[in-house]
Design brief:
- The protein is an alpha+beta fold.
- Among the domains are: 6-76 and 126-315, putative glycoside hydrolase family protein from bacillus halodurans (Beta-galactosidase, Chain A, domain 5); 89-122, no CATH class.
- It contains 19 helices and 28 strands.
- The chain is globular and about 85 Å long.
- The chain binds 2-acetamido-2-deoxy-beta-D-glucopyranose (12 copies).
- Residues 552, 589, 591-592 line the site of one 2-acetamido-2-deoxy-beta-D-glucopyranose.
- This is Six-hairpin glycosidase.
- Residues 1-21 form the signal peptide.
- One of its GO terms (biological process) is carbohydrate metabolic process.
- InterPro entries: 6-hairpin_glycosidase_sf, 6hp_glycosidase-like_sf.
Length: 698
């Protein structure tokens, strides 16, 4: 089988290479295969498919470290509070804030409703589906007892091969994730299997729901009395049903050789799959499902589909080859690009937008942020990986009814997109959560990129309702100021940087441009559909407040007193999104922007920056024609990417912080594929760069 799948892979790659690739992608990708000889304490190697990921230690399983098994569907609710008058989610009333002369109800924690507010923030939370590790016949083996440890993640095929020896006996483990089902396929080869002293354990944790950040490990393995597991086994398969309160799902285990499964002890949720003596191979699959379905196939069947999927992933869409043999910065950037592409296919391509820590561990209780959708998904469009983008972009349509409800509840027209979300579209209470506005025009950016690629009736229809709903909200939210005769944004609101006084924040520069951009695209959409553009859209678009400018530079918001010191320069430098992230706005002035860039460079607290700030800075530098500067930002000392390709969270968030990864690919994709007015690529002038297959940005 190994021969035939390798053949299939090479054949597919060759076909694509003949069709449209000049770069030898396979050899570049494989140069960055990860080779480890010990477990990483917090950043596991992973296999997975975007909706499901399985993190492993040096054994290729979760033997010594309980790295997580996370999915897009595994969630749990803790019991509701028992505090009087706070026992139902309908007891939560949020807070009323004055907003242009009226009280508007915001989804914010209310001190008088502390317990139910916190419950809504923490529930549902994403769960760790289970742990799968090597079992050493009851012996207490630690990682130090293993010698000759060696592990390779073959990026091109998406498989992990691990080997080590234990008391002189070699053990080989292959670990593969299915592209189609939430299945891990494992093949273990060792003489120790023949003696019955090697097997596999499965263990199931409870969900605490207590930690905003559950990193590096998710779940409680010691709260055994709070949940149940039951085992149903047949000759070559078993189903373990795990029930945590209202959440229930199955782990379906299927094996090929002669083996049996048993519960390790009634006091735990640990099960052991133990091969009968004789064979030196144990191959099995374990599939996590909310409802048991048909068989997920054998190890070899999963391996074949995974290898084909991964080769296809690498061989299609865009690719960039940097001068890695002559320049160490180019080499580091290429490393990050390749590892990031692997990690985002595993962690950032599910049915819902990506959690900031992907499927590695939990941040914000496992929820995802709708303002971050831009950073998580935009790169797929410029890299021409539309199938992966398509998996979750439907979120705007799915959440449209709740977005309409949100706007209506606050007395606005249209659909107001939420913030920190679970798959139902419910947004978690939070002061910042309820007052950010930069998530609103994202669908316009995506729709327009999609239309540039697929200028069809289908694309127009697909986005019409969402763009109309969101534009109606944006228009209704903009407030006509009688004295200045322009439309103001806020107060109260939070701009991209989340540390201003919301009651004083009005007309932030980036949001003004993004509002105009969004309304412009929504209007074009109506025109393309041969419908008339609502007059109110045009009125607001043409009369949005002017950009706030002080001393010939754009400033964070209108009237800010100290724009270049303190808090104003310590959070996301959203101002620089005016050119790079966005195409130049009709009111954009390049001289003013250059002055702004100089101010930002001279004053910003770069030690406090993290995540997508660096791609943002790089995109602005690239749009100003400075490829060297752009690369410097991407490789800035505060923008570290660890040995397995995961972006370090720094002091503010745990590792990994995937918006940094997705932002890197967006910035590189724009530098490689260009934008309207620039055919690209734009990298340091002395770099020989080869690019293929990119989609131009706006
Ligand atoms: C493990 O890998 C590291 C980094 O590549 C290397 O420095 C070290 O010598 C290796 N250790 C063993 C025991 O092979
Ligand atoms: C958690 O509770 C909320 C509110 O009752 C409900 O909408 C949601 O479906 C529940 N989720 C899970 C995973 O039980
Ligand atoms: C709960 O609500 C009832 C009815 O509004 C009220 O009389 C009672 O004081 C409340 N109890 C607490 C503990 O707030
Ligand atoms: C903003 O104003 C509201 C009243 O509308 C008040 O409750 C709130 O505390 C203020 N927030 C800040 C940060 O000043
Ligand atoms: C297993 O061995 C480790 C040291 O290798 C030790 O810390 C641990 O307590 C042992 N566990 C048991 C259950 O004996
Ligand atoms: C390795 O072999 C030694 C000597 O036979 C034995 O004492 C030890 O327990 C073995 N270690 C493991 C992890 O099996
Ligand atoms: C259970 O484990 C957690 C860490 O995972 C620890 O904080 C807690 O104290 C443990 N509880 C008990 C009852 O042992
Ligand atoms: C487990 O259940 C007990 C009894 O209901 C409860 O006191 C405890 O808080 C629960 N543990 C967790 C982690 O939820
Ligand atoms: C790599 O390229 C960058 C950008 O041109 C340049 O600044 C740097 O000196 C080069 N490094 C080496 C080692 O050539
Ligand atoms: C109208 O705009 C002016 C200038 O920006 C501002 O000072 C004033 O507060 C605004 N009016 C209201 C009622 O918000
Ligand atoms: C709009 O009208 C033009 C000209 O009549 C026609 O070619 C086009 O197909 C129409 N587009 C839509 C979306 O109906
Ligand atoms: C751009 O702003 C500068 C001042 O920063 C001004 O001198 C120039 O006239 C402006 N350009 C345009 C086209 O408005």
């Amino acid at each position: 089988m190994h021969v035939s799948t390798t053949y299939a892979c090479t054949w597919l790659a060759a076909l694509v290479a003949v069709a449209n690739c000049h770069i030898d992608r396979e050899s570049i990708v494989r140069q960055y295969n990860l080779k480890l000889n010990r477990s990483h304490p917090n950043s596991p190697l992973q296999v997975g498919n975007g909706n499901f990921a399985f993190g492993v230690d040096v054994t290729g399983l979760q033997t010594f470290l309980p790295h997580n098994t996370l999915s897009s569907w595994g969630w749990h609710n803790s019991s509701l509070p028992t505090t009087p008058n706070q026992t139902s989610i309908y007891d939560f009333t949020g807070q009323d804030w004055w907003t242009h002369g009226r009280l508007v109800n915001y989804n914010q924690p209310n001190p008088a409703e502390k317990d139910i507010s916190q419950w809504l923030i923490a529930n549902p939370h994403r769960i760790n589906l289970g742990r799968v590790g090597l079992w050493f016949g009851g012996r207490n083996v630690s990682e130090n007892d293993l010698s000759h440890k060696s592990q390779v993640l073959d990026l091109w095929e998406g498989s992990i091969s691990s080997s080590f020896s234990l008391n002189g006996s070699q053990v080989n483990v292959r670990t593969i994730g299915s592209p189609d089902t939430d299945t891990v396929a494992v093949e273990i080869k060792s003489d120790i299997l023949k003696t019955g002293d090697l097997g596999v354990f499965f263990d199931f944790p409870y969900a605490s729901g207590k930690n905003k950040f559950d990193a590096p490990f998710v779940g409680l393995f010691n709260a055994t009395s709070n949940h149940t597991t039951t085992l149903k086994s047949k000759k070559n398969s078993a189903t373990i049903t795990h029930t945590l309160d209202a959440t229930s799902y199955d782990a379906v285990i299927e094996w090929e050789s002669d083996a049996r499964i048993r519960r390790a002890s009634t006091a735990t949720h640990k099960y052991v799959l133990n091969p009968n003596k004789g064979s030196d191979t144990l191959a099995f699959t374990v599939t996590f499902v909310s409802q048991a379905t048909k068989s997920s196939g054998t190890f070899e069947e999963v391996a074949e589909s995974a290898i084909n999927w991964w080769c296809d992933y690498w061989a299609t869409g865009a690719f960039v080859s940097l001068p890695t043999s002559t320049n160490s910065s180019a080499k580091e950037l290429q490393r990050r690009i390749i590892l990031t592409q692997y990690l985002l296919a595993v962690n950032g391509a599910g049915k819902d937008p990506t959690q900031e820590s992907g499927l590695v561990n939990n941040g914000w209780y496992g929820k995802f942020h709708l303002e971050m959708v831009f950073w998580h998904l935009a790169h797929w469009t410029v890299w021409n990986k539309w199938d992966l983008y398509d998996r979750s972009i439907g979120v705007y349509g799915r959440f449209l009814p709740s977005s309409y409800d949100r706007a209506k509840h606050q007395g606005y027209q249209g659909a107001r997109i939420g913030k920190m979300s679970d798959p139902s579209g419910r947004s978690a209470p939070g002061e910042i959560n309820s007052l950010l506005i930069w998530q609103q025009p994202h669908p316009m950016w995506f729709a327009e990129m999609e239309y540039r690629k697929y200028p069809t009736q289908g694309t127009l229809q697909k986005w019409d309702k969402v763009l109309t709903g969101v534009a109606d909200f944006m228009v209704s939210y903009a407030w006509y100021n009688q004295s200045t005769k322009v439309y103001d944004l806020g107060p109260p609101m939070y701009p991209v940087s989340e540390n201003t006084n919301p009651n004083q924040t009005v007309n932030p520069a980036f949001e003004l441009a993004y509002w105009r951009f969004g309304l412009d695209i929504a209007s074009k959409w109506q025109t393309r559909l041969n419908k008339s553009v609502p007059a109110s859209w045009t009125t607001v678009k043409d009369n949005i407040a002017p950009f706030p400018i002080q001393d010939d530079a754009y400033v964070l918001y209108e009237g800010i007193e100290e724009p270049w010191t303190g808090d104003a320069v310590s959070d996301h430098p959203g101002l620089l999104g005016l050119l790079g992230w966005l195409p130049p706005d009709p009111c954009f002035n390049l001289t003013t922007f250059q002055n702004t860039v100089h101010k930002v460079y001279a004053t910003w607290d770069f030690a406090n920056l993290y995540g997508w700030d660096f791609p943002l800075l790089a995109m602005a530098a690239a749009r100003m024609g400075n490829g060297e500067q752009a690369v410097d930002w991407l490789l800035h000392p505060n923008n570290q990417v660890n040995g397995v390709g995961m972006p370090e969270g720094g002091t503010r968030v745990p590792t990994p912080y995937f918006p940094a990864s997705a932002g890197l690919l967006l910035a590189v994709g724009m530098m490689a594929g260009g934008w309207d007015g620039l055919d690209g690529p734009i990298f340091p002038q002395d770099w020989e760069v080869e690019v293929e297959g990119f989609q131009k940005a706006m």
